[in-house]
Automatic annotation (TrEMBL):
Pfam (any one): Amino_oxidase
Keyword field contains Flavoprotein: yes
GO MF entries: flavin adenine dinucleotide binding; polyamine oxidase activity
Protein name: Amine oxidase domain-containing protein
Keywords attached to this entry: FAD, Flavoprotein, Oxidoreductase
SUPFAM superfamilies linked: FAD-linked reductases, C-terminal domain, FAD/NAD(P)-binding domain
Organism whose genome encodes this protein: Rubus argutus (Southern blackberry)
Residue span(s) of domain Amine oxidase: 16-437
């Protein structure tokens, strides 16, 4: 068991936000930092795995928001790390929609359906905004009478809202950083940029972080906090103490109550945590002995139109990222993700092959391997990323981020503008530490003021004693040789009471 040793700051979670927080702390002279990570690696929801002879990204896979006037910090890190990427444009997917008979939906019909879906979403957004402006409740905005949507409408609705993200108004990421997106296609993985970043402030060797301030396989289960600081207990019985803690775990983990708080978090904080949705985003990888799908410009992404919304809807081939890999990726979300996570990989292969045979015929080869990430059932993640409503209460965003005493919160879910993105996680780590540094400065000022206020009475007493002593000395009728003072020896004075 580790012996408790008080640190300045404990950071719980070594994902993007946790590491960026550690970086800023150490660069600002707060080197007495401990980073506790529950898993056996850094990166959080950035995670690579070898599959089919290449490296695939189970979590974050794109750098979103590139090419604008303002540089995206994730893109800057990627360039600094010489991370290999390839340009990705899935807007063409709407023109590669297959029905269950394997027919391609005419591009004109697809374009009209997509425009209809966007217009409908924008109209709903305007109604929501108008209702909120007049003090109304978002939840009671009247919906038009439901109509039976066709498979193509369901497929486009899924693509627009679930795959791209639940945002239809101009997204801050694109307006601030640019509208280009790049797929990470590097054998070292997306996580390589984190190791390169760590080289600036942690001891690393041959791509591994060996700094003793980073402690892996430390599952935090209890956090005791008071005005005097925090005590953190881990699953293996270790105890860590600090003046402050930065909690860089996912919103899903906060909702799952993996970590208990003593005393409990205030009601305003827990209510804000529970109000935030968690998006489950599952990329299923399938390996084949040969290609049987179209390749070439505008063919990287394709869509399957089914009567069931989100049923193996959005597909991507990996030939642009890894030529000759013969890998397809299909994206599931939320309910479909949870359903597939709960079943065997054999069942998932059977379902996916049924969909592919609908699109490309019964004579296509069978998949030789499958990889199914299980983010929802991972107790250290419990989902993929946060999902604020299109129109959200700004108070909820504020309360999600707001500290509770010496506990500070960070992560992509605390970002008002960039929630759900890697750069959002990176920037919130910096923002949280800046807030913490301000609080530490205020605490130092308060401590200094307290010392001054306590010392004033003592100084006054000392001055009084000096005056009494001086009066007593001058009243004595004795001569003190001057050479005793010059020699540095004071005479011993005796007082008659």
């Amino acid at each position: 068991m580790d012996s408790p040793r008080r640190s300045s700051v404990i950071i719980i979670g070594a994902g993007v936000s946790g590491l960026s927080a550690a970086k800023v702390l150490i660069e600002n002279g707060v080197e007495d930092v401990v980073v506790l990570e529950a898993s056996d690696r850094v990166g959080g929801r950035i995670r690579k795995q070898d599959f089919g002879g290449v490296t695939v990204e189970l979590g974050a896979g794109w750098i979103v928001g590139v090419g604008g006037k303002e540089p995206n910090p994730a893109w800057e890190l990627a360039e600094k790390s010489n991370l290999r990427t390839c340009f990705s444009d899935y807007s063409n997917a709407r023109f590669n929609i297959y029905d269950r008979s394997g027919n391609l939906i005419p591009s004109g019909l697809a374009a009209d359906s997509y425009k209809k879906a966007v217009d409908s979403a924008m109209e709903k957004l305007r109604k929501l905004e108008a209702n909120v402006c007049y003090g109304g409740d978002v939840s009671i905005v009247t919906e038009p009478p439901p109509t039976q949507k066709t498979p193509i409408e369901l497929a486009i609705d899924f693509t627009l809202h679930d795959f791209e993200m639940a945002e239809v108004e101009p997204i801050a990421t694109y307006s601030d950083f640019g509208d280009q997106e790049f797929l990470v296609a590097d054998e070292r993985g997306y996580e390589h940029l984190l190791y390169k970043m760590a080289e600036d402030f942690l001891f690393t060797s041959e791509g591994k972080i060996l700094d003793t301030r980073l402690k892996l396989n430390k599952v935090v289960r209890e956090l005791k906090h008071s005005r005097d600081g925090v005590t953190v207990m881990t699953e293996d019985g270790c105890v860590y103490e600090a003046n402050y803690v930065i909690l860089s775990v996912s919103i899903g983990v906060l909702q799952s109550h993996l970590i208990s708080f003593s005393p409990p978090l205030p009601r305003w904080k827990t209510e804000a945590i529970e109000k935030l949705d968690v998006m489950v985003y599952t990329k299923i990888f399938l390996k084949f002995p040969r290609k049987f799908w179209p390749c070439g410009p505008g063919k990287e992404f394709f869509i399957y139109a089914h009567e069931r919304r989100g049923y193996y809807t959005f597909w991507q081939h990996m030939e642009n990222a890894y030529p000759g890999s013969n890998i397809l990726v299909v994206t599931l979300t939320n309910g479909e993700s949870k359903r597939v996570e709960a079943q065997s990989d054999e069942e998932t292969v059977k379902e996916a092959m049924g969909v592919l045979k609908d699109m490309f015929g019964p004579n296509i080869p069978e998949a030789t391997d499958i990889l199914v990430p299980r983010w929802w059932n991972n107790r250290f993640q419990r989902g993929s990323y946060s999902n604020y409503p299109i129109i959200s209460n700004h108070q909820v965003v504020h309360d999600i981020k707001a500290p509770v005493g010496c506990i500070f919160f960070t992560g992509e879910h605390t970002s008002k503008k960039y929630s759900g993105y890697v750069h959002g996680a990176y920037l919130t780590g910096i923002d949280t530490v800046n807030d913490l540094l301000e609080e530490m400065g205020r605490q130092d000022e308060r401590s200094s003021e307290n010392k001054t206020s306590l010392s004033e009475p003592l100084l006054a007493m000392t001055d009084s004693l000096n005056l009494i002593q001086n009066d007593a000395v001058t009243s004595l009728k004795c001569d003190v040789p001057t050479q005793l003072y010059l020699g540095g020896k004071l005479p011993k004075l005796c007082y008659d009471y």
